[in-house]
Design goal:
The chain is α/β, with parallel strands linked by helices and 321 residues long. It has one domain: NAD(P)-binding Rossmann-like Domain (Rossmann fold, 3-Layer(aba) Sandwich), CATH 3.40.50. It is built from ten helices and ten strands. The chain has an eight-stranded mixed β-sheet with strand order 3-2-1-4-7-8-9-10, with helices on both faces. Strands 5-6 form a two-stranded antiparallel ribbon. Helix 2 crosses helix 9 and helix 7 crosses helix 10.
Length: 321
């Protein structure tokens, strides 16, 4: 994938489009989807929408009891124990799924953490990079045989406009020095874009296409690590915790772009692109910001995508996978 392919398709949808809008004509009968984070926020809305379109949905969950409670009432949903921060757990879940499933048609990586205080997981990895990127990287790779068995599988990687905050810190990905929670978040979101770009390049010969996206600004449990004082200072909420940030999407609007990327026929034959507002996003200008939208060139650089893929493979292989 190159920056030249980041050309909007004029899909007919907008930032205001909802999950109901983009799924109105979609029939997923006989299809199997997997949604990480599928019991919370945009993930829950995604699971619900896929089920309503006829899909059977697998929901990996660290908090299985909570997942079962929240998903109660939705038919054709199976909760699978999995902790993205624990690669032994990722492998166990992958083994279970390879034994129980014949194919996987849609993989939506919606789980994630944002602006977390410094935490170390696994062999000392920075937690946002580990959960948002490495856990998903390992899970998708372990499930590639199931994706290859499908007729035109799609993988959708939730990134964010937060990728504007940081390129990959090639010299210190794990923030051994000078931890900054926002730069760490930004790096992990850039990694999500690069991951989708290289996955698409390397797996399309097996009929697998991959996409990344910015869902828009939505208040969900993703902001769990942001204190009220910090949220007020950022202009997101008032001092009483009431949301005052303009331009927020509803959960249904926020889930729409991921669902569009997973199902739109407009994307047949096209992959590796970064999407926003239910369309392929343009490349951001050199002086662009998160508010301006678009994707930064460093996030769609094919050489960087290949380099990160190699590093991620070495990291996960050394960690008992």
């Amino acid at each position: 994938m190159t920056a030249n392919e980041q050309t909007p398709l004029h899909s007919g949808f907008t930032a205001a489009s909802t999950s109901q809008d983009v799924m109105a004509e979609v029939d997923l009968g006989g299809k199997t989807a997997l949604v990480t984070g599928g019991y919370s926020g945009l993930g829950w809305e995604t699971t619900r929408s896929l089920v309503e379109a006829g899909a059977r949905v697998l929901v990996p969950a660290r908090r299985t009891d909570l997942a079962l409670t929240r998903l109660r009432g939705l038919d054709n949903v199976t909760v699978v124990p999995l902790d993205l921060a624990d690669l032994a757990s990722v492998r166990a879940a992958s083994d279970l799924l390879r034994e129980s499933e014949a194919q996987l048609d849609i993989f939506i990586a919606a789980a994630g953490v944002m602006a977390s205080p410094e935490r170390r997981v696994g062999p000392g990895w920075e937690s946002q990079f580990a959960i948002n990127h490495l856990g998903h990287f390992a899970l998708v790779n372990l499930l590639l045989p199931l994706l290859a068995n499908a007729d035109g599988a799609r993988v959708v990687s939730y990134s964010s406009a937060g990728h504007h905050l940081s390129d990959i810190r090639w010299g210190d990905m794990q923030f051994r020095e000078g931890y900054d929670k926002w730069l760490a978040y930004g790096q992990s979101k850039t990694a999500n874009v690069l991951f989708a770009a290289h996955l698409d390049r390397s797996a399309q010969h097996d009929g697998i296409r991959a996409y990344s996206l910015h869902p828009g600004s939505i208040f969900t449990e993703l902001q769990r690590d942001i204190t009220t004082a910090e949220s007020t200072a950022l202009g997101w909420t008032d001092e009483d915790g009431n949301i005052i940030l303009p331009g927020l999407k509803t959960p249904s609007q926020g889930a729409a772009t991921g669902l569009w990327a997973a199902t739109s026929p407009l994307l047949d034959g096209l992959g590796g692109v970064y999407c926003e507002d239910c369309d392929v996003a343009p490349v951001a200008g050199p002086d662009g910001s998160m508010n301006d939208g678009g994707v930064r060139e460093y996030a769609v650089d094919s050489a960087a995508a290949e380099r990160l893929w190699g590093i991620s493979a070495r990291l996960t292989e050394r960690s008992s996978l």
